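Journal club prep, notes for RB
We'll compare a predicted complex against what the paper describes. Inputs for the adenosine-5'-triphosphate case:
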Amino acid sequence: MNTAPILQIEDIHKDYGTYQALKGVSLSVRQGEFIALVGPSGCGKTTLLKQIAGFEDATSGRISIDGRDMAGVPAAQRPTSIVFQKLALFPHMTVAENIGFPLKLRKVVPAEIAARVNEMIALMELKPIYLDRLPRALSGGEQQRVALARSMISSPKLLLLDEPLSALDVKLKKVLQSELKRLHRSVGVTFVHVTHDLEEAMMLADRICVMRAGHILQLGEPADIYYRPADAFVAGFIGETNLLPVEITRRGKDRVEYRGTGIADETGAIPVRFIADQVGTGQALMNVRPELIRRIGPGDKAECSMNAQVTEIFTKGGTVQYRAHTPEGYDLAIEIQGTSDLPMRVGEDVRLGWAKKDIWVLPAGAA
Ligand code: ATP
């Protein structure tokens, strides 16, 4: 993969009147990457896509695509294409006319348009008999494939996707998620994909960009975001987790010493590679994902452990989720494979343990 940035966003601000929707966003995307933009509603995801696509002018900052500054370049002349959640197919045009529309605008000759439309139909695995139909004679999933075909026909360098799958039912969504992944792999185009669905972001993206209130909080590979979140907000946003308050008493070169109320740990120390860089001495949070906590049987040991009483059980197909309350007042989430030979009952007193390698210590606050 060529690693030159195809998209370079430098310190973009976007104000709507007095409201600051983007407050200094910088992002560098490599050629051929699949980036997922996630964050709570209103954090600025769509606003960022609109600046990239050229639908709006940023208040300040710079966007370059393939090394070219996009200032003053209108949307139609940018090497980008966008697919929205709500279908924007032209209802009175056939599928073929819809797909070929961007080339018609560019005055490409009809024979070439027809050839490209056929290529797009094959790429999106749409049946050729659909070509003469109107969009309303297709299912929702097929219509979204047509929208994708139309967005790809002009060979964009960047495909911008604004929640294109969120209006589809769960089963169809799964199918189209695989289709998107396949499309991305086969065409080698760079994708920037806004989604509310974190599982979708984890499944599809090479890197996930977590936004909040007009800022990027973290950009990283899915496992980084999930297991090494930058702060408590990212940790909680990107899936269920346990955040236990700890006090870092000494930060050494190789390990940090800590105290955590109710946490039994013979060494009282954690290797520095499991500690976020911003954590100094003082208050911090120990992040442990529910699936990394296990029940400890009699005579069994764990590097860190806590006593708790089981309060709830939820069966989630292949796994079982438990809630347990500790004497210190913490509620822990534990997720165990359904085949676990140490099941727990509601009301039972249990000992829960986890390994140091499964810990990530992050700064206190900002949840
Ligand atoms: P969602 O996930 O709900 O789609 P989002 O992260 O995409 O949210 P944006 O659509 O980027 O959010 O909006 C960011 C903020 O900017 C919101 O608070 C929104 O109300 C505001 N905003 C967006 N467009 C305008 C506009 N044209 N005028 C004024 N405020 C706007």
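Talking point for the session: The chain is about 25% helix and 35% strand.
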